[in-house]
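Notes continue from the previous slide.

Worked example: a multi-chain complex. Inputs as given:
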Amino acid sequence: AQSVTQLDSQVPVFEEAPVELRCNYSSSVSVYLFWYVQYPNQGLQLLLKYLSGSTLVKGINGFEAEFNKSQTSFHLRKPSVHISDTAEYFCAVSSIKAAGNKLTFGGGTRVLVKP
Amino acid sequence: DSGVTQTPKHLITATGQRVTLRCSPRSGDLSVYWYQQSLDQGLQFLIHYYNGEERAKGNILERFSAQQFPDLHSELNLSSLELGDSALYFCASSAGTVSSPLHFGNGTRLTVT
């Protein structure tokens, strides 16, 4: 079984400032890692994913994440946020041995970008 | 637009009733997943179907059931509804491999009064 912990439930940040959203996971097997974003009244949209290879993953909208196996972390960063980045962000994992991509989600981090 | 269509968008019903939520996956996707999102439980995996067959079950109550039809659309049936079933129910679809990302619909908001 897997579990995902997002260490911050809310992150206020000023426009054009950098932001980092922390994600730690626990799993007895190897996992794939994902970040999703949920804008108000919408479904979840994939930001980026780590399957293998380079531990630094670039996604859409200027976001990137770094996989750290020893620390079992997959933190999400953006060097300069926009008002439009106000949303809830979810970290998720899936077991590479599972039948299908059943995701286990963290509790989410609400990002509020202030002008 | 993710390509995943969920109907209805909103549903208001009374305790004890039964409802059906419908999901049409992205064209070509064989897998359908159902998730429940609530304030206290967060995003919880309910069930996964692949090409008509059940593949995995999560925290799905016995009062809930789902199926995937030959045209690959899926329905989630919720019966004997309780106040605590009020939540946002998401459907997601994927190509079906373990590394395929999920594409989510906009959800059905269920309110049980």
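Summary box: The mean pLDDT of chain B is 94. The two ends of chain B are 31 Å apart (CA to CA).
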